[in-house]
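Bench notes, afternoon.
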Amino acid sequence: MFRRRTQDAPESQPQPVKPGGKGRPTPKRSEAEKRRRQPITAPSSRKEAYKKVRERQADERVKARAGMSRGDEKYLLKRDKGPVRRLARDYVDARRTFASYLMYLMFAIVVLSLLPIAAAKLLVLFAPPVLLAIVFVEAFVINSGIKKLAAERFPDEDRKGLGLYAAMRAMQIRRLRVPSPQVKPGEKDKV
């Protein structure tokens, strides 16, 4: 009545699967334990343990840097998180700003200051204040524009510091911005 089936006995009909069941027999405990066991790969020395930790941290940093560059919310810094900040980034990145070329112009002014020409010396004297005045006016325009747009689209979100955030992003060289620009210059309709 309670006999075990031998290896030689022909297999009977497969058992019908219970509705809601897992569709396979429960494994024996010894089989489950064998599958669960893994060889211990503990480091043999403290030096090796530190090396593994450093490698893991380096991999995590690379992953975080790539995620931040893509604009993945999970990896962004607190100052960059949220839909309002994303709107500000896209607003700035969709425009060509004079401020993003400021560093190039300042480098050109430094090079001009090395020339022994009187006109170049005069230009070096008056150009930086004029350039900075243009950048401040542009920052004011960006500040007011993004605040107005954010108030329309996200009336319930916190907009504190948004104008300064957008203005500072506009002053960065486009290629060096983090997170990387997600819109191309001129794509104002996506903002």
